[in-house]
Amino acid sequence: MNKYDSLTLKNQLCFPIYLCSKEIIRRYTPLLDDLDLTYTQYITMMYLWEHNTSNVKDISDALFLDSGTLTPLLKKLEAKDYITRTRSLKDERNLDVTITKKGLALRDKALSVPCEMGKCINLSEEEVKTLYSLMYKIVGNLSKEEE
Amino acid sequence: MNKYDSLTLKNQLCFPIYLCSKEIIRRYTPLLDDLDLTYTQYITMMYLWEHNTSNVKDISDALFLDSGTLTPLLKKLEAKDYITRTRSLKDERNLDVTITKKGLALRDKALSVPCEMGKCINLSEEEVKTLYSLMYKIVGNLSKEEE
DNA sequence: TCCTTTTTGGTTGTACGCAATTTAATTGTA
DNA sequence: TACAATTAAATTGCGTACAACCAAAAAGGA
């Protein structure tokens, strides 16, 4: 026990969270290869499967990604013909992002992914619930203090 | 309740983990600016504060980072005079990584960081313990199945 | 209406993060 | 001792991530 104990890796909470996130995404990669999606593209498609049409601002707010990440990512999804990108007529500042038929069809192919990931993570239902709420609690605390 | 429920953002466990990791690192950034370190550089220094001297392989195993990430990162730490990089005499394949006086001195400046981050995350001791063990459980499960 | 402010996306620059490949050094073995 | 196999770093290429900055469009007052 010394004054530097708080600066050891084993006493960090953030380090295992960071590890966990990275390792999970690494495990997603081979599953998502079949869909020709990266993890970030996958959660973007997930948002669009629910909303069909949206814009950069709303996607940014939902996924906590900024335009520097989204603009090139959406262009890639457009190149794969999973979405369309068009300036809004009502407000030319907005970019309408709409899922295509091909993008919508992808949802069926993706159905096996959550189940496969669940097997990898391998927690009990109780543990999943606990973890889920703790994660959102932290995210909430972090954004709260940014006033 | 429909067949696509497992593909909604709110039913993902991985998404809040991913968010949490990103948001935490974003909060670290201003704190680490004083030390002229990024988050990944910070955990690398943390490892070296404990071990004084190591090599790329051992750092890679401890931090779950590969040489493609570590090689340029260690060169940057060397440029800041926080570490030295020298080929091992015993085995020329290994690169010895050793902390410098300046790098060691940085530890005192870093002492306030864990406390500041703790305030941002703002969980009870009990919650921290639960979360910590769940995180390592997942990381363990994920690496277990890679046989 | 003119003009300031705000909002929305895009661009640029820096730093990961990892898969795949390469090179050099060492080890194991016939 | 040759030589194949293994190991450790480095390199390359692609895809995030985000801060900082920019430009165009819209909103809101005086």
Set out the fold topology.
Two copies of one chain form a homodimer.
Chain A: H1 14-33, H2 39-51, E1 53-55, H3 56-63, H4 67-79, E2 83-87, E3 95-99, H5 101-110, H6 112-121, H7 125-144
Antiparallel strand pairs in A: 1-3, 2-3
Helix pairs in contact in A: 1-6
Chain A binds a DNA duplex (30 and 30 nucleotides) through residues 22, 25-26, 29, 38-41, 55-57, 60, 65-73, 76, 91-95.
Strand order of the largest sheet of chain A: 1-3-2
Level-1 CATH class name of chain A? Mainly Alpha
Shape of chain A: globular
What's the main sheet of chain A like?
3 strands, antiparallel
Chain pair with largest interface: A-B, 57 and 57 residues
Question: Would you identify the CATH H-level superfamily of chain A?
Answer: Winged helix-like DNA-binding domain superfamily/Winged helix DNA-binding domain
Compressed to H and E, one letter per element, the order of chain A equals HHEHHEEHHH
Number of domains of chain A: 1
- Counting DSSP H or I runs of 4 or more residues, the number of helices of chain A is 7
Q: In CATH terms, what is the architecture of chain A? A: Orthogonal Bundle
Strand-pairing-aware structural class of chain A: mainly alpha
DSSP E strands of chain A, number: 3
Mean pLDDT of chain A: 96
Name the helicity range of chain A. 55-70%
Ends distance of chain A: 37 Å
The proportion of strand residues of chain A reads 5-15%
Oligomer: homodimer
